Structure formats: structure tokens, C-alpha cells
Amino acid sequence: LNWHSSQIMLKYLYNVQDKQFALAEEYLELETKRIHELQRFLVPIVDWYINYSFTKEKFILSHIDSIKMMTWIHKDLSTIKKIMSNKQSVEVFKQFEEHKAISELNIQSAYRALRRIQKVYAIPASDMAVGKYKDRIIGDPMDACECNVMSKYSVEEYDTYGAIEWALQTYNKWLMDRPKCVDIDKLYYYIRLASMSTGFNFENLSNFSNLNHFGNIDYITRYFSLIENELNIRDINAESTDIYHIYDNFEQLSRNKNFRNLCRTGKSARPLTCESKCRYQTKNSPYWILMPFKEEDISINPSIKLYHDIIYDEEIELITKMASIDVSKLLDAHYVPRYHVDDIKICFTLKLTDAAFYFNGKISLVDEQRLGQLKWFSESSDPMLFGKLNERIECITEYSTKTAEGYQVVNYGLGGHFSEHVDAFTDGPKSNGNRLVTILFYMTDVPEDGYTVFPNINFVAHCRKGTALVWQNLYLNNGSVNSGTIHGGCPVIKGNKWIMTKGLYEEGQHLTYNWRDNKIITIV
Ligand SMILES: O=C(O)CCC(=O)C(=O)O
Ligand SMILES: [Fe+2]
């Protein structure tokens, strides 16, 4: 189980932990009771025995006394054994499983997710280690052991800059109380290993390469401060320089630069034009005149619109509950869901799973591309709810939902994200045509990060509960894929991001081109 992949999973993990703690407490109680009982029984007997042992010889000579002794021994020893082997606590102990919930691998992926947040948002390790991002508190300070793990995993992933940055944090924290979890020798090794590829002036450090660093703290301190100086020269810690560029230089992933920049600033850089309008839209429907929807133009090419208050709190509550249901079921056998039995069946057939990323028609389960938990819902899992949503979608998009795919509900977790992609298929024609329109519902508020970013048009959408972003993936004259629709979900730093998406297909729509003729999909 990929525990950190969503908030629902993490919630489940915390519940597993609660259960194990409760077991440990129960065990302690039973054991204490048992020990006390044994003590109560044993102490007077032992006292008695010590007193009488001086007269053992006499006992043996007296036959009456011997019988007494034999009876006592027989009775007492069996009682002692009975108390000692009280099965109750043993039974509880058997249920306690330290590794039931979490594995080393889980932890490693979680640390990797943390490092991803650090890289995308360009958070210096010195800030992250105190739980800070810009002027925000994003968590509790990390201790030397935690920083050490960051360094260790960075080394294992050939993430050289991470290795050094976190080794320095580890060292600074280690100096205070020298916890055992830090092997200073290894730390030194991490740094040496990573030094050259980060552009360090290694010559300066070579004097230290043969140092007998065991027990010579002065030497190591000099070594570490040298590295720190090196980093300072590169303005890693200087407030005035933009650390983001340093990360960019190290990462050298220029194609991601704008994406990350938009994730960081959270600000759209698109110019407002005179066509940019917002309106109360009724589409001349008498129904919608009573409750017009709030439509905001975002972009003409590609066509992107934002709808406010388009999905309601009660609907959101129902959907997120339905998506979490099998997790709750796992946790608590006595869980009584409030849905109709038929709905449950459908909920269970479509299980919550790790969100996958499709590339060239192949499924890839790599955290670096996408991390979240996903559940598909077909209309039949709640005809009332999804029927209404379909109607609403048809009204705002003026496209049919008859040929559309189901609803995809996603919950993000620790560093949950979705790297840049197009929603349209690019690996060849599909029977229902391509994904023409995407509707992305935001079902929670994520106040300060986790945006949806369209890097090619410099647009950033914030995750606001009840709004929906609607865009056209294809050009309407020939069905080629509009590269302006490249988008991704920035890693979530803090908060619970729930979204739901639906794709509408070309099939069944009134289009000016014949999509069945499109044998090759081009991205323009
Ligand atoms: O999480 C987001 O903001 C984007 C999600 C997305 O692009 C998708 O599910 O296709
Ligand atoms: Fe997408």
C-alpha cells in the first residue's frame, strides 16, 4: 500500500496506528495485572519458604511435615505457572504487528515526495528543515535523524545536490546533541560522493580527504563550514538571490522551468484582453434563469472557462465519501455506510487505486509523473447525482455527455501532483474519438499551493471548492491537439486536494470535421 499517496490513505494509516497503540496499551494493562498477581501470590510464599528452609532437614524427618510441604509445593507451583502463563496478554501481543502498516519502501517514497516539493518550490533545505516555506509554516522542524534520511535517500537516487544540502543540515543539527542515528562517517562519505558533480571547488576540500575524522570534531567542522562557504558562494542561502535559478541549473530540466515558476508564484501571467469577461450565464434556460451560473473567460485559444459554485457542497460530500468508502471498510468491519446497497457494490468494484500516468499508450506508475489515489465512477453508481452533473455539464459546454467517460475522482497526498501532460490521447485514434473537452471540478480549497498550471499560456488555476475549469483539448477545425492545453497539477504542500474530472469525446458531437478520418494525431 502506498500510504503517502493520498490523504484518505494517510488517514487510514493513522487509524491503523491508533489501533496498534490501543493494543499496546491493552497489553501493558494485562501484563501489569499479571505481574501484580504473581507478586501478590509469590511474595508471601517465598517469605514462608525462606523461613522454613532453615528447617528443611527437620521437615524431611517429620513425615507429617513432609506431606504438608509436598501438598504446598504441588498447589503453589501449579498456581504460579497458571498466573505466569496467563494467555490473555499473549493473545493481545500476537495481534500487535509493528510492520503491519508501513514499510521501509513507503518511507522512502514519502521522503522522495518531500524532496519533490522542495525541488519544485525551490525550498532551501535550511528552510524546510525548520518547517518553513517563504513566510509560511509548513510543518514542524525536522531533527538530525530526519535530515540524515533525506541525505541518505538523495545519495541513493543520485540526487547529489540534495545529498549535500541535507548532509549540511544533518551536521548542524547533529552537533547539538549528537544523536546515534547519524553516522558522521557516512555523512562525510555522502558529501564526498556528491561533491564533484554539484560543481564544488573540490580542490579546496582535498586537503581534508585523508583526515582522520574520527573524534576530530574541529577538523570536521572546518570541513563542513568550507562546504557551507562553497554553497554560500553560489548564493544558496543568500536571500537576495533567487535560489530557484540555482535549482534550475542543477536540475537542468528547462522544459519544466515555467511550470515550476507558475507553481511557485501561483500567479497567471496572461494579459487580460477586452474579450476577457465574466457573466451570469443562463443559456436561455428557464431553469438557469433562477440560478444562473457564474462563467469567467480565461482564454480564447485554447478555449478555457472557469465556473464558480457549479458543484454543490452536498454533492461534494457524497462523492468524497463514496470515494473513501472502501478504505473505511478496510479499517472498520462495523462500518455502516449510509448508501444504498446497490451503490456500494459498484463502489467496491471500482476500487480506489494509485493514480496512473499514461504515456505512449503505456501505463506508468511512477511517482515522479503522478501521485494520488483515484477512483472511477460510472453514472450508474449514483444515477441521481451523476445524472444531474451530466445535465449541468451539457448545459455549460453545449456538448453531449452520452459518449463521455465516467467521473474520475482524485485525492492527493504527501507531495501529490500530476506532471505536465495533455488530456487528449496522442497515441492513436480511439473508438469514441479523442478527448475533446475536459471538465475539472475542484472539491476542496487548497489555499496556497497545489494549483493547476497551464505553462504554455501562463495560466494558473487555484483549487477552490465548488469551481470547475472547462477547456477544449482539440482544435475545432481539424481535431488536432492544442498544445496550449498542456497542464499539470503542482505538488500539494499543505492541505487536502480533491478533484473530479470528466472527459467528453468527439463521438456524438456536432463537429465541422470528420474525426474518424484523423488517423494521425498531431499536437499544434
Ligand atoms: O490536479 C490537477 O490540478 C490537474 C489534474 C489533471 O490534469 C488530470 O487529472 O488530468
Ligand atoms: Fe489533465
Automatic annotation (TrEMBL):
InterPro entries (UniProt xref): Oxoglu/Fe-dep_dioxygenase_dom, P4H_N, P4HA-like, Pro_4_hyd_alph, Pro_4_hyd_alph_FE2OG_OXY, TPR-like_helical_dom_sf
Domain of life the protein comes from: Eukaryota
Listed cofactors: L-ascorbate
Cellular component terms (Gene Ontology): endoplasmic reticulum lumen
Keywords of the record: Dioxygenase, Endoplasmic reticulum, Glycoprotein, Iron, Metal-binding, Oxidoreductase, Signal, Vitamin C
Start and end residues of each Fe2OG dioxygenase domain: 403-506
Location of this chain's protein in the cell: Endoplasmic reticulum lumen
Keyword Signal in record: yes
Functional description taken from the UniProt entry: Catalyzes the post-translational formation of 4-hydroxyproline in -Xaa-Pro-Gly- sequences in collagens and other proteins.
Designated name of the protein: procollagen-proline 4-dioxygenase
Lineage: Eukaryota, Metazoa, Ecdysozoa, Arthropoda, Hexapoda
